[in-house]
Design a protein that fits this description.
Strand order of the largest sheet: 3-4-6-5
Largest sheet: 4 strands, antiparallel
Radius of gyration: 22 Å
Oligomer: single chain
CATH architecture of the largest domain: Orthogonal Bundle
CATH class of the largest domain: Mainly Alpha
CATH topology of the largest domain: Topoisomerase I, Chain A, domain 4
Number of domains: 2
Structural class: alpha+beta
CATH superfamily of the largest domain: Ribosome-recycling factor
Length: 187
């Protein structure tokens, strides 16, 4: 019977870890004025009739903190990539020189940086709500275990362990958020 409580705890940890990982990845898409290839994640181009991620048809580099260089493997992809960037409305105008596309990442104003921090904090709060929902589901499972004959002490220990994991994950979210806020507010 002890295996049931361990399985419940492991599943809870895995779900919470996945939520924190998703949060971390979503924060990487928030532009902090520093060039990053992740800014183009999700951008798809028409590659011979198939919508294809831009990183599968070109090399994406960041030679410095304020520019992204996209060098397609086929020159005929230059106008297609340029058109996709304009259509995606990512706030940067592509500069096509015939060999590669350069994107200049503008330095955000103080007001814009505060907006980005606010957006990031909303994402953090959503993640915390998701973690708490996972905790609630796990506690419901613990109560079901109790109804299925697992000892009350084992269920209480499981609920305490679930709370500890929840606290750890929320602290992790706060730590990630603090680092992102620092990154955004630094010029």
């Amino acid at each position: 019977m002890a295996m049931d409580t361990q399985t419940c705890l492991k599943q809870t940890k895995d779900n919470m870890n996945a939520t924190v990982t998703f949060f971390d990845k979503s924060l990487q898409k928030i532009r902090a004025g520093k060039a990053s290839p992740q800014m183009l994640e999700g951008l798809r181009v028409d590659y011979y009739g198939n919508p294809t991620p831009v990183d599968q048809v070109a090399n994406i580099n960041t030679p410095d903190a304020h520019q992204i260089v996209i060098q397609p493997w086929e020159r005929n992809m230059l106008p297609v990539i340029e058109k996709a960037i304009l259509a995606a409305n990512i706030g940067m105008t592509p500069q096509n020189n015939g060999e590669f596309i350069r994107l200049i990442v503008p330095t955000p104003t103080e007001e814009r940086r505060k907006e980005l921090v606010k957006k990031a904090k909303q994402e953090a709060e959503q993640t915390k709500v998701s973690i708490r929902n996972i905790r609630r589901t796990a506690n419901d499972e613990a109560k079901k275990l109790k109804d299925n004959g697992v000892e009350e002490d084992a269920v209480k220990k499981l609920e305490n362990d679930i709370q500890k994991v929840t606290d750890e994950m929320i602290a992790k979210v706060d730590k990630i958020m603090d680092a992102k806020e620092k990154e955004i507010m630094t010029l």
